[in-house]
Each structure stands twice: as C-alpha cells, then as structure tokens.
C-alpha cells in the first residue's frame, strides 16, 4: 500500500492531483473518479503536489525526496521544469497568497527554506536558522488593502508585511520576513517535530495553528509571541491541521471560523472549537485499514449540476483520496 502525502484541486473544481510514496503524481477527474494523468519521473517519494495558480491551474508543481521540485504541464502531459537547489529531500511546497501565486516556497531536510520566482524560474532567497530539517510551510494570507498586489517586485511584497511561517524537526515554529529573510519570531512549546502549520484568515490572520508529532494541536498569537491554546486527544502523530469553514452543532454543519480540524496517524479527523479547551467536538474515523490520515483539506468542488459544494477531502496511508460531503 502507498501513502498519499498531499493533494490539490484545480481552479475550475473538476480535477484533483495527488502525490504519493509510489513516486508518482496523479491527476483525477472528480466527476468520473478516473485517473487522467500520471507523471512518474520522480525517483523517490513525492511529498507534495499542487496546482499552480500562476499557470491558471494548467500546471502541477511537485516536491520529492529526490531533492527536486518539478513542474508538469497537464494538457501537454510533459515535464516543464526542474528546480534542483536543495541539498536534501524536500518535504513541502506552498504558493504565495499574493501576486497570483507567482512565488513558491519550499522547505527541506537541509534546514533551509527557499523562495522561488516561478515566472523567471529563479531562486530569490534562502532562509537559514532552523537547527533541524524543515517539514512544513505557509504564506501569510492576502492583504485586502494591498494595492501593490500586481506589482512583480519581491521588495514591494516584503514592504507590505508578508511573512512565512515554518515548522521543523527542531520542534520550533518560526516566522520570517519575506523581503529581508530575517527571522521575526520563534515559537517554542511542542515536544516533538512539527508536521503542519497554518495561518488563520480574516480576524484570525495573526493566529498560527500547528500540529505535531507530540500528538498535540496548538494555537500561537503573532502579536503577543505566545502560545494561547493547546488541544490534546489524538493517540498518534498529527500530520495535518486546517481551519474549518464549518461549525458543528448537533451534528449539523454551519459556517464559522472558530473551528479547527486535525488528521492523525490514529486514523481520525477531529474537530475542535478554538473558543474552548474542552474535548473535541466531533470525530470522523478514517476508512478501515487506512493506516492514518496524512493530509486533509476543505475544497470547493464542481459537481455535475454546475453548483459548488465545500467538501472535506483526506488522503490516507492506503493510497486512497476520500471526498466527504
């Protein structure tokens, strides 16, 4: 059985791509559930696979234990480009929330974070400071009042206050200024390596959500530089955390920004209310024999009726991608 480490949805809501430890990137049609593309030129585990927003989702970007980042053209079914600057395996990639996703961050076991310009295919910055391999990364969210969002200048981006956060095998979360590459904040508290970090949106934009190999979920306030909450309950490593678009009330879902969810190798997805440190609100069990939850996301999928629904999707340790809703 193969583990699905990551997946992404195309902008039109019709396609999903996935990366797996079978060394492949695969593309699936959501309505037919059929695989329509297979990219198999990586020679090691594919840790991340995402549609490129800068290429209008006609291109997939993937990272691998083979130390490369590859770009794949879906329509032409070819490899477009390879980035090969990292000195060790690459654990994660993320596109910028600004400039239409023109910038890409990658994190690696070589303890570095790299910022790339995918228009020019150049490495722009290297962020150094972590004392262990870096596993996860996230960009700060798009600023609503950013008048310079369309200016293709990384200095202007930095001047607008954009940051990235990273989680590492050194058990820390670090916040970095994109323009200067300087480290702004170190969060310490997790007892084992970080597996997932996320910025909040809107009123939660200054709150970092993290999940760790220590089986805990934590919230951190960038303004006070402090941990503000901890959630315990998982029985194994937490691989993925997300802010949920839903609140759960009597087993019914309503829109809210106060709910977070987590996926773990204990084969459960758990929902938590950030307004309370109490036990989880709701638990979804993964499929039997799924070998844990390795990734999860809330995706807006296009259905045959031409309407969009928000679905919870997760990838499991048996090679399957599941869509709930």
Description:
Keywords: Repeat, WD repeat. WD repeats lie at residues 1-38, 39-82, 83-126, 160-186, 187-230, 231-282. One of its GO terms (cellular component) is transferase complex. This protein is an all-beta fold and 325 residues long. The protein has a domain at 203-222 and 233-324: Methylamine Dehydrogenase, Chain H (7 Propeller), CATH 2.130.10.10. 2% of the residues lie in helices and 54% in strands. The chain has one helix spanning 154-159; strands at 4-9, 15-20, 25-29, 34-39, 46-51, 59-64, 69-73, 78-83, 90-95, 103-108, 113-117, 122-127, 134-139, 163-168, 172-177, 183-188, 194-199, 207-212, 216-221, 226-232, 238-249, 252-264, 268-273, 282-285, 293-302, 308-316, 321-324. The strands form seven sheets. It has a four-stranded antiparallel beta sheet with strand order 1-2-3-4, with no helix packed on it. The protein is globular and about 50 Å long.
Relevant terms:
Methylamine Dehydrogenase, Chain H, single chain, mainly beta, four-stranded antiparallel β-sheet, 2% helix, 1 helix, 325 residues
């Amino acid at each position: 059985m193969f583990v699905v480490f990551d997946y992404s949805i195309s902008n039109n809501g019709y396609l999903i791509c996935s990366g797996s430890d079978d060394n492949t990137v695969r593309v699936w049609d959501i309505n037919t559930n059929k695989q329509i593309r297979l990219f198999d030129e990586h020679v090691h585990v594919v840790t991340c696979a995402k549609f490129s927003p800068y290429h209008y989702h006609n291109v997939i970007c993937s990272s691998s234990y083979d130390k490369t980042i590859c770009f794949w053209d879906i329509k032409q079914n070819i490899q477009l480009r390879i980035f090969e600057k990292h000195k060790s395996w690459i654990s994660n990639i993320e596109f910028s929330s600004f400039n239409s996703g023109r910038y890409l961050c990658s994190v690696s076991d070589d303890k570095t974070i790299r910022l790339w310009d995918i228009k020019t295919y150049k490495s722009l910055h290297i962020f150094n400071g972590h004392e262990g391999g870096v596993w996860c990364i996230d960009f700060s969210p798009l600023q609503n009042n950013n008048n310079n969002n369309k200016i293709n200048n990384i200095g202007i981006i930095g001047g607008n206050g954009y940051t990235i956060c990273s989680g590492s095998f050194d058990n820390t979360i670090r916040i970095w200024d994109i323009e200067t590459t300087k480290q702004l904040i170190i969060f310490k508290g997790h007892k084992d390596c970080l597996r997932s970090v996320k910025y909040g949106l809107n009123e939660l934009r200054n709150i970092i959500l993290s999940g760790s190999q220590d089986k805990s979920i934590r919230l951190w306030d960038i303004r006070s530089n402090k941990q503000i909450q901890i959630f315990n309950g998982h029985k194994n490593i937490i691989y993925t955390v997300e802010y949920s678009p839903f609140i759960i009330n009597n087993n019914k879902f309503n829109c809210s920004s106060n709910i977070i969810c987590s996926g773990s190798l204990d084969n459960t997805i758990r929902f938590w209310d950030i307004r309370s440190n109490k036990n989880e609100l709701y638990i979804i069990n993964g499929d039997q024999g799924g070998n844990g939850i390795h990734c999860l996301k809330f995706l807006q999928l296009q259905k045959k009726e031409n309407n969009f629904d928000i679905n919870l999707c997760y990838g499991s340790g048996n090679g399957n991608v599941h869509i709930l809703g």
